[in-house]
Amino acid sequence: MLKKKYHGLGLFSGGLDSILALKLIQRQGLNILGIHFYSPFFGAPEKIDYWEKLYGLELLGVDISKEYLSMLLGNVKHGLGKVLNPCVDCKILMLKKVKKMLSMYGASFIVSGEVLGQRPMSQRRDTLFLILKEAGVSDILLRPLTALNLPSTRVEDLGLVDRQKLLGIKGRGRKAQLELARQLGLEEIPSPAGGCLLTDPEMGKRYLMLISKISSPLSIDFLLCKVGRQFWWGNKWLIIGRNKEDNESLIKLSSSEDIILKIKDFPGPLGLARKGTNWSKEDLTLAASFLLVFAPKVRQSGHTEFGVLFLREKESTEVCAGLKNRKDFFWKEPEWDEKKKKLLLRSV
Length: 348
Ligand code: SF4
Known about the structure:
It is built from 13 helices and eleven strands. The chain has helices spanning about 15-25, 50-55, 65-75, 85-100, 125-135, 155, 175-185, 200-215, 220-225, 245-255, 280-295, 295-300, 340-345; strands at about 10, 30-40, 60-65, 110, 140, 230-235, 235-240, 260-265, 270-275, 305-310, 315-320. The protein starts with 7 loop residues before the first strand and ends with a helix. Iron/sulfur cluster binds next to helix 4. Iron/sulfur cluster binds near residues 42, 86 and 90.
């Protein structure tokens, strides 16, 4: 089937600036398709239908996980932000990918919601130019919110986009964007950015631990980092659900080589012993005892020993696990380690 044609493609994170940038161009009577990249760290493809109706935009979800992981784990050239966010490399990667998609949609330019001076790492003047150059989009990237602070682009020079109707917002304030959102009649104002877990210090600890322990982590490993309580003992990774939702996620994300730990006859958390290292029966029995620490009903029962099931595919085995105190275990929660962050950059 032939793809619908558009004048331009835009980066759509779901954050306010990306919405405003696309709406500004749409308001000039041009057809724009918003590309919503998603990965274990950012993006919400399940919200695309909702956003389309709410903002009157056309959007397409694109999974960029594979390319993103390969950049993050071995090819970060322009440094990381405060946590593990490689913002400059991320922007370059996304723009390169959108550039490749232009011809498929008959589009001739790209729109993005960057604002000069808004973010210290990726939106300084020199960085905005570096991104243009490295992504190879110097003559086709339009930044409508801040265009008047930058040289005009080819699409403006050719008259396809009216430069008079573009803006010259700059700096870290949000006043101009909020006023524009009001003028455009946006019914819902999202947070400034789209929400990226690589900027979250708590998630940063989890990701850093994973990267330092597993040589080539997969997308699913990063998704598992989001779930429940996380514990490591050497290279053994144990995840314990905090609630029903976590337990469901553990089942959904587990592979056939993982082992699910389930306390018999009592409600409580599930555990997931992640594949990738050998779990002896002894290790699993210790993990089973550790799981009991997080089951209040078990602790209130007055018993001292409990049956714990190990479930893998259709197999099920059972051990008897004793109740102990948290301090009796070596399992450690991930901690931030600046040296590990540097190692990540040195892998380039
Ligand atoms: S915050 Fe995350 S998604 Fe946004 S540019 Fe930085 S790395 Fe990319």
